[in-house]
Design goal:
By secondary structure, the chain is α/β, with parallel strands linked by helices. The chain contains 10 helices and 11 strands. It is elongated.
Length: 331
């Protein structure tokens, strides 16, 4: 295997130019002259044997090789930074960085308060929050890009473990001026004539709804399909229909939208922690996990410790958890 002798400064130079789409701004960010920055990029291109940028008098843009190499360069820099921060964390347990992958509902509704509380306890810790769909959260945990994930149950990957913390119900999102919005006892059949909006089949929420609702519980076929819960709520707000959403997605203070519970649709999803099976969290990640469990009313669990429900940390439990409260969110 050929040995490539490029250095960290060359990778940083390449990523900076890609991010800023130009040498002058990137040079200012790195406190270099444009000529010095250009030499670093030229040297990297020579070592790789490929052009990374197309340069004209008007613009600098990545070549196809450059686009492919950019993600690898970012990963290498992030990995090195994490390694350095890990050494500092061992030397001084109060500093370092944690990376959390999280579904947008929780990222918007719960994470601001959680991160604020954690940062008050450990102000020197840097937090990286990656919000995405459940498949993206699982992938980030699986590859080690995230220390742990926060999402909902249903991931079947044997490399991952899930620890449920709370249970969240699905509700019907409607406008507050809907004729049935003020009724207390509601059933799915009462909305049979409505125009329905749903999320796409690729959504984790859609898969959970399809699997959890019986044939007699499923809403009428939707006329409008969107990618995310946030878009679904926008459509409902615009008067284009109604749709089932996680309760966290609706703010009870919202002046336009309201979540209605349907007596014959009692579908819930378990929210909790996603971890790499068999892996031990870093000390900082463990502290955030304990903080999360404390905030959500669950007992702190040491890695591998058996909880009172008989499950180990990172494994699913079957004991019901306290329900979630409602906040503004996306998913």
């Amino acid at each position: 295997m050929p040995r490539i002798n490029f250095d960290l400064q060359q990778l940083q130079a390449f990523v900076a130019v890609a991010d800023r789409s130009g040498f002058r701004a990137a040079a200012e960010d790195l406190h270099l002259s444009p000529a010095a920055l250009s030499r670093r990029v030229d040297r990297l291109e020579q070592l790789l044997g490929a052009r990374l940028f197309e340069r004209t008098t008007r613009e600098v843009r990545l070549t196809r090789v450059g686009e492919s190499f950019l993600s690898r360069a970012r990963f290498a820099l992030d990995d090195l930074e994490a390694a350095v921060l890990g050494v500092h964390e061992i030397a001084a347990r109060h500093a370092g960085r944690i990376s959390i992958a999280c579904v947008p509902t929780v990222a918007t509704a719960r994470m601001p308060e959680l991160i604020d509380g954690f940062s008050r306890r450990m102000p020197q810790v840097r937090v990286r929050l990656m919000d995405g769909g459940m498949d993206e959260v699982a992938a980030a945990v699986r590859t080690g890009e995230a220390d742990f994930g926060v999402g909902f149950s249903g991931v079947t990957d044997p490399a991952l473990g899930f620890e449920p913390l709370l249970e969240e119900r699905y509700v019907l999102a409607v406008r507050r001026d809907h004729p049935l919005a003020r009724k207390r006892s509601l059933a799915l059949a009462m909305f049979a004539a409505e125009r329905w909006v749903t999320v796409a089949r690729t959504s984790g929420n859609r898969r959970l709804l399809d699997a959890g609702l019986g044939a007699d519980q499923r809403p009428p076929r939707a006329w409008l399909e969107v990618g995310h819960v946030s878009a679904l709520l926008a459509m409902v707000e615009a008067g284009l229909g109604v749709g089932l959403v996680p309760e966290l997605a609706l703010d009870p203070r919202d002046a336009v939208l309201k979540g209605l519970r349907l007596a014959d649709v009692a579908l819930t999803r378990q929210m909790g922690i996603l971890t790499l099976a068999g892996a031990t969290p870093t000390p900082l990640a463990q502290r955030f996990l304990d903080h999360l469990r404390e905030a959500w009313g669950a007992p702190a669990v040491q890695p591998g410790q058996v909880r009172s429900d008989g499950a180990k940390s990172g494994q699913a439990a079957h004991r019901p958890r306290p329900r979630a409260s409602k906040f503004q969110a996306d998913d």
